[in-house]
Amino acid sequence: MSHRLCAAFAAATALFSGAAEAAPHDWELGFQPAVTPVMDRIQDFHQLLLYIITAICLFVAALLIWVMLRYNARSNPTPSKTQHNTLIEVIWTVVPVIILVVIAIPSFRLLYFEADIPKPDVTIEAIGHQWYWTYAFPNDGGFQFDSNMLNDAAAAKKGEPRLLGVDNPIFVPVNKVVEIETTASDVIHSWAVPAFGVKMDAIPGHLNHTWFKATRVGTYYGQCSELCGANHAFMPIEVKVVTEQQYEAWLAQARKKYAADDTVRVASK
After folding, report:
1. Residue 269: is its pLDDT beyond 70?
2. Which has fewest Cβ within 10 Å: 61, 147, 169, 240?
3. Is 0.85 surpassed by the pTM of this model?
């Protein structure tokens, strides 16, 4: 049985040793491809706002052009002395209110969807330090480990992107709800992975909760998104989304590898 687990874990490691599926690229525009329901909704909301703001900008630009052509000194030598127009004043008060309501409804729905955490299949504690992360799996063996950024030489050797690859990434199963509990041991950090639509502050003495459900196998990167000191830029996050079998194989290996690390680092406990 142990040989099969080791083989499965080796296969998973080999599968994800290549290029990442979700990492920033030069000259890239827009969001990284969404791989969670939360990020799908964030992108939909962003698209709605883009349509609204484009329509507003085109309308205002057209109105300005019309005013400049219709009411310049040559076209309109005798200016109107009108001071008030009740209809126009009602329109420019009511229309912005309607626009804000149209924006607010999906905004509140999105916030509720992000905050309402489904029953988790996996719970991970992410503890921020200056300047690395510690991950604990309290319900899957109680082990924990540190995750540090790879230097340039090590990242190039492993085929990892510069400033994003880590020595110990976390593995999670695909199509499973993963709850992330964030806290910190020193200053405020923030656990953020763009492809997941996740960004949650890690605050000393306080436990925050967020979640994601990755729908595609792959390697996904993030970084600490809260200014946390001199090496803030060197605090990456690497998440490998694998199949259920590969995740179980990784768990079996991780329980043995990290069993001796009993240091308590969580500030809130």
Report:
1. no
2. 61
3. no
